[in-house]
Amino acid sequence: MIVDLNYLVFLFSFVIRTNSLNILILFPTAANSHFLVFEPMFQELAKRGHNLTILTSRHRLYTHENKTLLYSIKDEKTYMVKPILPMDFFKGRRTEMYKEQFLLASITESTCERFLSSEYVKNFLKESNSYDVVIAEVFGSHCYFGLAKRYNAPVIGLSSTDLLPWMYQWYGSPENPSYIPVLFMDYSDKMNFFQRVENTLMLIFSKLVHLYYIAPTGNEYSKKYLGVDLFEGGDILYNMSLLLTNRHYTYQTPKPLSPNIIEVGGIHLGKPKKLPESLDKLVSGAPSGVILISMGSTLKGSTFPEEQRKMFLKVFSQLKYTVIWKWENDTMEGLPSNVKTHKWLPQFDLLCHPNLKLFITHGGLLGGQEAVYCGVPMLILPQFADQHLNAAALEKTGASLHIKLRTATEKSLTEAINKVLTPQFAQNAKLLSERFKDRPMSPMDTAIYWIEYVAKYKGAPFMRTAVTDMPFYQYLLLDVIGFLILLAAIFIYVFYFCIKRIIRLVIKTSPQSKIKKH
């Protein structure tokens, strides 16, 4: 797949106030949903008086009273990631879960080339700057981590998804495949024998792809454009101070995390707003309620496979509910009277409307979090990446079901919709929402606290577990296991030798042996 991206870098800062931090934020990934997760956090850091310098491919700048624009790019042509993947790009084959990692690597490789070769980055590097903290997205390639190493500042990683398979070892967290499903898999934490076998193989495969392809490629770009070897003097990836991850154990599989991994799932969620008048009239006026169907911002919903689209419309036409379908094209053929299409929707506000009964989605993490927050049951049609994992985890909560789009029939789709619309699913969704919101601090306050904590304690190295400095044979206790096996072998040999000698001695001293001698 070829993604045409012209990366632009925007650098802007906010006036420093007393005790404010100088923070460099690296966010080159052009995927809209990734930036949207942490955009509110950047705004909140600025409101609290911190000085932000943000390198990103985003074209939208913040409106803040203390903002000083350093570089103007208003005359440049901008290419941002829109819905670029057609629905038929993924065929639903099992092997795609393995191929997706190379797709991820190719996209991030393109990101490195276009981002680091940008004139804005080159100009930025000419300046003499110092930073208290570097905050960087951890996704795919790590070429831009050379900037963090260049400024010798504590590094805080941001993950808009759950942890990628190779990230656990950076922070010293357990990665046991017997109950921790790999992000690319479609399993929950309850796996049978063969699922555990495949999950283990996927973990090994993912680590090898990262070790021999993703990491070396990122390092080459770092050396080429930044003159920084990521692995020289200690791998920077194993020396990051903190990770803020957009996950939460209430709706994803719970797992042990080291102290330097902080869950801030739902950090992008604010308070729902009132719907636009025309949309509010449609939703409020639906006598039986509303079903929303949306395939997110990366998948292009209007490329829904034709056969499946007709099947969905036929099923929708038999429902008593009003269906609102996010559809990027102007028209959709064969629309039943109860189905309405919209190119764009205020999804979060719509999901929190009391007359919204069901959300049909691809299983993207942001949309799933919005539905969880609003207490809306889901029917999930996972397509790629972490969507399969999200679907399996959410189904375990009893607030959603998931089906395969490619194999769904009119009967199975109707049964799934009717099942999720039962009171039990609605009750489970409300309970899940309550658990999700019940925290000692909001995700935003949690994130800001830990960023300031890391800066205050100069990277807080005491939060890192010893495993990050261990060779793999020590971490897996291979040396201990080998030593114990050797001891057991020696004990067995000595025991065998002693028994053999005793038997010989007994035979030699027995009366029968003496008689034979005479």
From TrEMBL:
Its main location: membrane. InterPro entries: UDP-glycosyltransferase, UDP_glucos_trans, UDP_glycos_trans_CS. Gene3D superfamilies: Glycogen Phosphorylase B. It catalyses: glucuronate acceptor + UDP-alpha-D-glucuronate = acceptor beta-D-glucuronoside + UDP + H(+). It is a single-pass membrane protein. Keywords: Glycosyltransferase, Membrane, Transferase, Transmembrane, Transmembrane helix. The keyword Protein biosynthesis does not apply. Pfam families: UDPGT (PF00201). It comes from the Eukaryota. It is found in: Membrane. One of its GO terms (molecular function) is glucuronosyltransferase activity. One of its GO terms (cellular component) is membrane. SUPFAM superfamilies: UDP-Glycosyltransferase/glycogen phosphorylase (SSF53756). Its EC number is 2.4.1.17. The chain crosses the membrane at residues 7-27, 472-499. Belongs to the UDP-glycosyltransferase family. This is UDP-glucuronosyltransferase. It comes from Diabrotica balteata.
